[in-house]
Amino acid sequence: KCYLNLCQALKLGFGGNPIGPAGTGKTESVKALGAALGRHVLVFNCDEGIDTSSMGRMFIGIVSSGAWGCFDEFNRLSQDQLSAVSNQIHMILVAIKEKKDSV
Predict the structure, then answer these.
(1) H helices of the chain, where?
(2) What is the pLDDT of residue 70?
(3) E strand or H helix at 22, and its extent?
(4) pLDDT tens digits for range 73-89
(5) Kindly report the CA angle at 57 between 100 and 83, in degrees rounded to 5?
(6) Whole-structure pTM value
(7) Average pLDDT, whole number, for the chain?
(8) How far apart are CA 76 and CA 56, in angstroms?
(9) Residue 97, φ and ψ in degrees, nearest 5
């Protein structure tokens, strides 16, 4: 079911956000799907030390390489960080949908 939902989201130009209890295979599922679709998956652990500028640099690397980003412990980000990151993700998804060369 996870693969089906993520594939449908990809087809529509969206990302995915598997949720569930710790240790249920969310990250491994994303990595396996990425491998099956020929995408390198970069896993980042979000903690208190990550700020919006470092997230921006991560997004630049992910977008530049064509890899997928998997952000573990995303819930640890503060509300203002989540707001800034959601804006960055939105801009990336819009650029992908519109097939732009740059963001």
Answers:
(1) 2-11, 26-36, 52-65, 79-97
(2) 92
(3) none
(4) 888 888 888 898 889 99
(5) 80
(6) 0.81
(7) 88
(8) 17
(9) -60, -40
Give residue-wise pLDDT tens across range 38-50.
999 999 988 878 8
For the record, the structure tokens of 25 come out as: 């295979």
**Residue 68: predicted pLDDT:** 92
Instruction: Quote the CA–CA distance of 45 and 68 in Å, as a whole number.
Output: 14
pLDDT at 12: 86
Q: Is the dihedral of CA 48, 81, 56, 71 positive or negative?
A: positive
Give which of 38, 36, 83, 86 is closest to 59, Cα–Cα.
86
Distance CA 103, CA 101 (A): 7
Evaluate whether 67 touches 40 at the Cβ level (below 8 Å): yes
Asked if 52 and 85 count as a contact pair (C-beta separation under 8 A), the reply is yes
Residue 18, SS3 per DSSP? coil
